[in-house]
């Protein structure tokens, strides 16, 4: 390969929607922009977002590829790429798959934070497998999936993309994601499996002030204990690629951080996959190096293999000639790109295999939505709606639209797609129960509040797609960071008006971050959060309200009383410092918290060889699911310990009166107290089981 051809394989310059246009007869034609790009690169290394549709790209129904013609477009572009490459090297088609493929007609799943609330890696693995099969059937190859960011500051607009505030829970879900999308660890990917790019590596969930892309003030211990375990788990599971984050670690942005990308990722972890830069992140390095050419050289030398929209990597040929990059470094990066293409079988079969789209996406999305609905309190016992409830008033703008249920990075939906809370209640309510929207006489008021990550054509976007100016109702998503966490003033006023009427009230939060909700926590009869549960989340919420299903979710993040408390994550250092004078330092609801319509009793944990056993009994009158959570407190640590650390968990579903012994396998490599409970706060007060030596632990998976 010539230097030009090699450099071309490391560039991912175009926005995919600039590569084509619709013709008057409804077919596709390629643009001069694509032809210019393939000519410049002597082919094409990768193309981002060929099927992306949203307000930023401007692609919608009628202009972009749908389920029926995505593969036709992909093959049209691939045919052109092969014809432009002297060596016949195919292109990688890179697509966003944050919660389902971000394309027209793609199955939309609940966002990561909702997935975290399920505490169910097995269910998520099946949903991830479906997303991969859908992507490949439409002609996509490589899936960009958020998984590595840890939610340490809920003011950050991208909190919805995090699985949890806890590294252990995030690691288990990252493993499930990789296993589901990529399948077994084989050299070649099956036709219905997709290699994943795990993002973002690393520490982006801890930016100062919760501001997007800001600096991260992390010590090495905090980095390794909190922000790297999910990435480590993903690498062990066989992840094909990771994406370097925007933030800096120890003063160096991740895309130029050799200690992170080479020292830790490649040398310590023996990762031999691909490293991709985030959008325009390489060019940001010019603030350090002085110009885009040397910025590209810095990123390549640090360990980045594939750029995203940057100018810097377009100068790699010159960087080699000037001695800024050794050709051997360039060759190693090119080899990783080509190896991924070989593993996908693109040299043998560059075009889309014509297979039907997989079935079952709606069912999987709904199943995740059902499992993520979390009952925070039910003080007045107003839920589930009982036989005495004959009239239900449904209020709040979030009750009658699915747009607020979807999260950021979502393609336009067909009108009428999905299920709103209002429509689902009308459809599922028992005969004789009246459902009306708005004020009026009622036995129960259902008030649906929260936030929205919906983007509109009026949203202003940065060059990397982050929201620069957001519509008033947009309160979350990339670029939409908040200084305060209270619900909007009009929602608080509506809550005050409804509760002042004296009607028993159930508040449902549809949100992409934990809002501070002291008034509903204090005065609502019941409080639930469903996060962004996806298009069919309204059905899942209605089923819980009516008692058709049990609330099964558990909090993946702690809920603060106010933004002034932050941080409030449960696994803080075990210091003797007190709280605040003006309010409690404790969270409103703790990590792991979640109630059911039944009750569960946990027995005393006991050691059994290399496992911990605990008896769990459903002492209530309804079948339900609980999550047994095992935490540890270190007794003789080498450094200052954390108050609690999640070390194992297991979901269990029991009939009324049923008992079961749950077996947990924690990885413990030192003397600890083991505490078992239904949430972090409950475990903190539980009687400890003291383990004075290592008793489990494969050595490669320490706590």
UniProtKB/TrEMBL annotation:
UniProt-listed InterPro entries: Cellulose_Degrad_GH3 (IPR051915), Fn3-like (IPR026891), GH (IPR017853), Glyco_hydro_3_C (IPR002772), Glyco_hydro_3_C_sf (IPR036881), Glyco_hydro_3_N (IPR001764), Glyco_hydro_3_N_sf (IPR036962), Ig-like_fold (IPR013783)
Sequence ranges assigned to domain Fibronectin type III-like in this UniProt record: 627-664
- Spans through the membrane: none
Q: Which residues form the Glycoside hydrolase family 3 N-terminal domain?
A: 77-340
The region annotated as signal peptide is none
Pfam families xref list:
Fn3-like, Glyco_hydro_3, Glyco_hydro_3_C
Keyword Hydrolase found: yes
Any GO molecular function: hydrolase activity
| Presence of keyword Transmembrane helix | no
Which segments constitute the Glycoside hydrolase family 3 C-terminal domain?
A: 373-596
Swiss-Prot/TrEMBL keywords = Hydrolase
Q: What is this protein called?
A: Glycoside hydrolase family 3 N-terminal domain-containing protein
């Amino acid at each position: 390969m010539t230097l030009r051809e090699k450099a071309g394989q490391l560039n991912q310059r175009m926005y995919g929607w600039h590569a084509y246009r619709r013709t008057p007869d409804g077919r596709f034609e390629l643009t001069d922009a694509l032809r210019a790009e393939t000519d410049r690169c002597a082919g094409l290394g990768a193309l981002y977002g060929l099927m992306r549709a949203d307000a930023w790209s401007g692609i919608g129904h009628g202009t972009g590829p749908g389920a029926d013609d995505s593969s036709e477009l992909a093959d049209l572009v691939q045919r052109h790429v092969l014809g432009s490459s002297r060596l016949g090297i195919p292109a990688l088609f890179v697509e966003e798959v944050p919660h389902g493929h971000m394309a027209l007609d793609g199955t939309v799943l609940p966002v990561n934070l909702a997935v975290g609330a399920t505490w169910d890696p097995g269910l998520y693995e099946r949903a991830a497998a479906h997303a991969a099969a859908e992507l490949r059937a439409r002609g996509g190859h490589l899936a960009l999936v958020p998984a590595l960011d840890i939610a340490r500051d809920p003011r950050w607009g991208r909190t919805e993309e995090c699985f949890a505030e806890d590294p252990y829970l995030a690691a288990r879900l990252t493993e499930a994601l990789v296993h589901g999308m990529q399948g077994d660890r084989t050299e070649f990917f099956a036709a219905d499996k997709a290699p994943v790019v795990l993002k973002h590596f690393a520490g982006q969930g801890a930016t100062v002030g919760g501001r997007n892309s800001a600096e991260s003030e992390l010590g090495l211990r905090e980095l390794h204990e909190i922000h790297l375990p999910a990435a480590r788990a993903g690498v062990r599971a066989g992840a094909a690629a990771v994406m370097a984050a925007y933030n800096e670690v120890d003063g160096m942005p991740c895309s130029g951080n050799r200690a992170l990308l080479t020292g830790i990722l490649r040398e310590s972890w023996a990762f031999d996959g691909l490293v991709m830069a985030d959008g325009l992140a390489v060019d940001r390095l010019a603030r350090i190096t002085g110009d885009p050419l040397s910025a590209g050289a810095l990123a390549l030398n640090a360990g980045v293999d594939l750029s995203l929209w940057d100018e810097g990597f377009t100068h790699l040929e010159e960087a080699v000639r000037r001695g800024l990059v050794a050709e051997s470094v360039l060759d190693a990066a090119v080899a990783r790109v080509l190896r991924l293409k070989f593993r996908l079988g693109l040299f043998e079969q560059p075009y889309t295999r014509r297979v039907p789209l997989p079935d079952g996406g709606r069912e999987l999305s709904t199943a995740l939505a059902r499992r993520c609905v979390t009952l925070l309190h039910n003080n007045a016992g107003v839920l589930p709606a009982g036989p005495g409830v004959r009239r239900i008033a449904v209020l709040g703008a979030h009750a009658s639209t699915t747009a607020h249920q979807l999260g950021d990075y979502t393609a336009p939906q067909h009108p009428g797609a999905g299920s709103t809370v209002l429509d689902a209640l009308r459809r599922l309510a028992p005969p004789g129960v009246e459902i009306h929207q708005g004020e009026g006489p009622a036995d129960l008021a259902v008030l649906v509040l929260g936030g929205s990550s919906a983007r509109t054509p009026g949203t202003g976007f940065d060059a990397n797609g982050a929201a620069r100016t957001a519509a008033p109702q947009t309160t979350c998503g990339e670029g939409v960071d908040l200084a305060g966490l209270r619900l909007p003033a009009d929602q608080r006023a509506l809550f005050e008006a409804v509760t002042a009427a004296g009607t028993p009230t159930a508040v449902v939060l549809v949100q992409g971050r934990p809002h501070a909700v002291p008034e509903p926590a204090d005065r609502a009869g019941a409080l639930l959060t469903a996060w962004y549960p996806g298009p069919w989340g309204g059905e899942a919420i209605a089923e819980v309200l009516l008692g058709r299903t049990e609330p099964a979710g558990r909090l993946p993040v702690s809920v603060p009383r106010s933004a002034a408390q932050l941080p409030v994550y449960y696994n803080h250092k075990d210091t003797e410092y007190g709280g605040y004078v003006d309010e409690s330092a404790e969270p409103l609801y703790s990590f792991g918290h979640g109630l059911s319509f039944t009750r569960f009793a946990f027995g005393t944990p006991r050691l059994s060889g290399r496992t911990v056993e605990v008896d769990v009994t459903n002492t209530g009158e309804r079948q339900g699911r609980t999550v047994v959570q095992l935490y540890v407190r270190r007794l003789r640590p080498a450094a200052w310990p954390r108050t609690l650390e999640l070390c194992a968990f297991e979901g269990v579903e029991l009939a009324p009166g049923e008992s079961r012994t749950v077996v947990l396998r924690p990885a413990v490599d030192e003397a600890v107290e083991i505490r078992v409970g239904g949430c972090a706060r409950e475990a903190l007060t539980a009687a400890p089981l003291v383990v004075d030596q290592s008793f489990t632990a494969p050595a490669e998976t320490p706590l």
